[in-house]
Each structure stands twice: as structure tokens, then as C-alpha cells.
């Protein structure tokens, strides 16, 4: 497999402080998670931008599975070691997790026989507005810009976590200038983190039989100046991302 091919890694965080530690790190309310799904969430930097894009599955307050892009796995483990040095919980060694389609959603499996081709996973994730973060796109996007709150990956009423002050202010007192859209185009596939316009930045992209498709963070009016087609995202992920007044 090419080093440039998207891959995922899994960690298990276990111990009496597992939930407590993660609660102070991620944008979602960890105590409300279950073992029924991998919930998308993020650890942000102090500017409120996503450092690590994660998926969590909570088996109990002392046993939580974590999925992350493989190219960020070592950096994530170092982050947990630094911030969780005094927590009574331990991060397992990194293990391989496979891309899977579960209930028609891009998800993960530990069973290699159930894995799907990563290009299929990416295609479905892009169509469904399920943005993911890799080394190319760290520190670029705020959770709200990627519609993470519309995917139940941000809880605005939970306690403090990294970047929470800025994220909450953007939600309660302002609104993003850019947010996630699904577009298609012709020609070379634009790379993640590249700009199609100073108000259009690529989050994820994939070649198609007729060109390419991508998730971009953009001002809606900026997209109308480009030679691209704007497609609808699934219900609940279209329109503005601001808090209803």
C-alpha cells in the first residue's frame, strides 16, 4: 500500500480516568457516547482549530476506543502522554483498523474480511459530508466549519476542553465565514489544504471517472465564481451552519 494511501489506526484508552481525561480534550460529550457507533469528534488547538480528527466508541467510562488517521497516530500518542501524564488511564499500542461501510455509512472494522477499498470509503464519506483530518489538514478548520456539530460531534453545553472558549464564542456570538460544501469539477484533483479561491479551501478530494469531487470549506458566493458544480449534502448537512436565532 502506498504511503500516500489513507489508512487508519486504533487505540484503546483504559483506566479509571479515561472518560474524565477525554472529556477535557474532545469536542463531544464523552459520557453520552455508546458502543453502538464510532462518533466523529475532534481535539482542537487553543485557536479552536482541529488538531486531531477522531472517532470514539465508548464501551464504559474506563474503556474507550479511538480511531485516527494513521499519519497522525504517533503525534496523537505523544499528545496523550503529555496532557494525560497524571491521569489514571493508559493508551494502548497502536493497532490497525480497516475501512468499512456500516449501515451505508463510512465506518471501521477490526475484521480484515469485512474491509472495503479505501477509495470506496472515501467516496461515500465525501458524498455524506463526513470530512476527515490528516497531517495535511491539521490546524486549518474549526469544527463548525466542517459541520461537525451537525454530525453530533460537538456539544456546546459540556464543560471546558481544548479550544472550547473560541469554539463556543463562534457558536453563541458569531458565525463562521466559511463552511463545508460538496463540489465536483474537471481536470487535476485538487490536493487537501489547497485553495481553489482565497475563500475556497479543499478539505478532502478524490478522483472520479468524470473528474473529481471534494469537500471544501468555502464562502457560498465564492463557489459561484468557479467552474465547479455544487451538490447537495445529506439532509441535515445543507445550508448555513450558524446557530438558529
From TrEMBL:
Gene3D superfamilies: 2.40.30.160, Aminomethyltransferase beta-barrel domains. Coiled coil: none annotated. Keywords: Methyltransferase, Transferase. One of its GO terms (molecular function) is methyltransferase activity. GO terms for biological process: iron-sulfur cluster assembly; methylation. The keyword Methyltransferase applies. It comes from the Bacteria. This is Aminomethyltransferase.
